[in-house]
Amino acid sequence: MRTQFGEEENSREGDKKEESSRLLPTPAQAPVSSPSDSEDSEEVAFEAREKILIVDVAGQEAIDANDSVPPFSWKKLWLFTGPGFLMSIAFLDPGNLEGDLQAGAVAGYSLLWLLLWATSMGLLIQMLSARVGVATGQHLAELCREEYPNWARLILWFMAEVALIGADIQEVIGSAIAIHILSNGVFPLWAGVVVTALDCFMFLLLENYGVRKLEAVFAVLIATMAVSFAWMFGDTKPNGKELLTGILIPRLSSKSIRQAVGVVGCVIMPHNVFLHSALVQSREVNPKKKGQVQEALNYYLIESSIALFISFMINLFVTTVFAKGFYGTEQANSIGLVNAGQYLQEKYGGGTLPILYIWGIGLLAAGQSSTITGTYAGQFIMGGFLNLRLKKWLRALITRSFAIVPTMIVAIVFNTSEASLDILNEWLNVLQSIQIPFALIPLLTMVSKEQVMGVFKIGPVLEASS
Question: Could you give the CA distance from residue 194 to residue 176 in angstroms, rounded to a whole number?
Fold first, then answer.
């Protein structure tokens, strides 16, 4: 009887474990499956073979037997470094540069405080997004599919796509403008759009070499932006006293309301909220182990803080360069992404490397990096909300088509009207501000639900501050 009872007890425990593993799959528990099995499984951000194993100093797999947070390790920080820098690209895309240069030209140094606080708020939002991804093992779009009724899920998906398309138009147009500048006008805007459209295939090629290789490429692109815009900052020598005053003293005039809204909209990107919750799953962390989850969140906070500090400095360089050169001038209200390089060239001339080409290199790095992360975000958004089990190249093609078709129309229509294209870019930044609630409300809802987050549910103070 005891043996029979023991067998029945073990059977029931085995059934419970099997059911639990189906509900909350983890990389360590995931069984080896055949291709036919994977077709029936749900969409995931990263397959187990794609994830980076976190190891301790001795080179062994991290084991958190007591569910406590291990001591800080530089090696582990390096292993966790990557997702935050990919996330920070959304703070550096051509839409941000458009907002920066217009804020500088129209409002001078007076909106730097807003840029600082928007970046700080962006860090808080992105850490909540990372918290959702690490603690649940699912990204935000997947959780929305499970937690919301169909009508709400479809509305949120549609709004996320609208925000992504708006951002992608700016990113692709920014790359096309950079290609136009660096080719001395040989490539018109529409040709630059076609060239940029091919980056989704470059993205797929990079992804095949592993997550770390992809992250290294983005590190190079961010470094290119930092060097380019720091060089511009050094060449133009903005006023240090006015710069500090602009950062420390909040000021806002009626003439700069639209630029202020644009600064917030281009810094806090709705699609980035969905993206970061998926990117953090590229590291193998067991969401059932509180110590591992908390450790991952600690490292992601450090990494994301560094990444967003760098992005803030790059945005500050751009804003102050245009504040120094064009604030209070006749060109201030007409300057935009399309003609900014030419205005810089007329104002500051050549040198060892003409400032026009420095601007073009930085703009190209911003555009190319952001279009790739936009494709990445589009795949997670579409796959998560709709649970589409498509091949990656097909999903990337669909995602890229959503942005390229309207962008090509914009490039052809506005090719001969620089002023109209700049106004469009400015209003696209405002569109991002309008779309923010459709990403933040689901994020705050999920991260404050104990049924979803367990012990990692945020408290009322953090929820209110968000």
Answer: 8
